[in-house]
Amino acid sequence: MTLIDGKATAATIKAEIKEEVEKIVQAGGKRPHLAAILVGHDGGSETYVRNKVLACEACGFESTLIRFEDDITEQTLLECIEQLNNNADIDGFIVQLPLPRHINEQRIIEAIDYRKDVDGFHPLNVGRMAIGLPCFISATPLGILTLLRRYDIPTSGKKCVILGRSNIVGKPMAQLMMQKQYGDATVTVCHSRSENLREECLKADIIIAAIGKPGFVTADMVKEGATIVDVGTTRVPDASRKSGFRLCGDVQFDEVAPKCAYITPVPGGVGPMTICMLMLNTLSAAKKEFYK
Ligand code: GUN
Question: What pLDDT, on a 0 to 100 scale, did the predictor assign at position 1?
Fold first, then answer.
């Protein structure tokens, strides 16, 4: 069994990005600049955004954090997005999700200029991705593809089961894994209503678990020699930790790992890659790689 080290892979890629940025700057170019909008004080979102700002530093990017309280109006948020759309110094930006209930999340996402949508959540990027056109690919699926590539894990013609159908992970992951230029795999998507879920998983060469149910994937669901990618990051209360919680994946790691050819741990697997891919998308945005 080989442990897929997302932390080390992300560190390598961030160093590669920094090297490229310094070359751009030395040649008289501009440092990539990422802005993040954070609404409210959700613990998870605070951590994610802090880590995104730190990753910008590691990559030699400029970063700007824009904070609003929970009671911000949708109109004010839309105005802020409009300013970022029109600010030539900002190459890309993200609005950290989830947003308070009184704000229409989809309206916010669609207000972002798709050429600066480094999260890849705008319907134009989602649609372009689905038909294989150049676009921003959302960070978690792109991180998973990158891990599979860097570890030389064969995907072409393999059977891949994706657990979960979210807009952020399950759906884009299925699109990418089926496309010839990315995964080139035979893809099955399972979710909370799927019948025969265990049987589907047992046939899989690759399982990508993104359902947000701690320990959902057990050893009896996994074929010998399979590759397991665990996207779960549920916060489970743990009084022995300073933070008061620990991160729990969707896979029963201890019993599943011995059966696997490759497996990602939680933490240290997919998580660090997600932020790293946001950096890669920001670099692409700064280089105007997809949209001139
Ligand atoms: N909330 C959870 N994941 C993400 C992400 O990748 N981007 C944004 N903007 N919000 C999130």
Answer: 97
Crossing angle, helix 139-150 and helix 6-26, to 10 degrees?
Answer: 100
pLDDT score of 292: 74
Instruction: Indicate the angle between helix axes 123-130 and 170-178, nearest 10 degrees.
Output: 30
Phi, psi of 160 (to 5 degrees): -115, 125
pTM: 0.96
- Can you give the residue ranges of every domain in the chain? 32-111, 139-271
Architecture of domain 32-111: 3-Layer(aba) Sandwich (3.40)
| Nearest atom, ligand 1, residue 98 CA | 1
Average pLDDT over residues 114-130: 98
Q: What is the CA radius of gyration of the chain?
A: 19
C-alpha 13 to ligand 1 mean position (Å): 20
**Residue 163: its H or E element:** strand 159-163
Strands 234-237 and 245-248: antiparallel
Determine whether domain 139-271 maps to CATH 3.20.20.70. no
Rounded-to-integer distance, Cα 240 and Cα 260, Å? 30
Residues with C-beta less than 6 Å from any ligand 1 atom: 94-97, 119, 139, 168
Q: Whose CA is nearest to atom 8 of ligand 1?
A: 96
pLDDT for the residue numbered 14 = 98
> Which of 34, 48, 52, 171 for a ligand 1 pocket mutation test, highest count of atoms within 8 Å of Cβ?
48
Residues involved in catalysis: 52, 96, 119
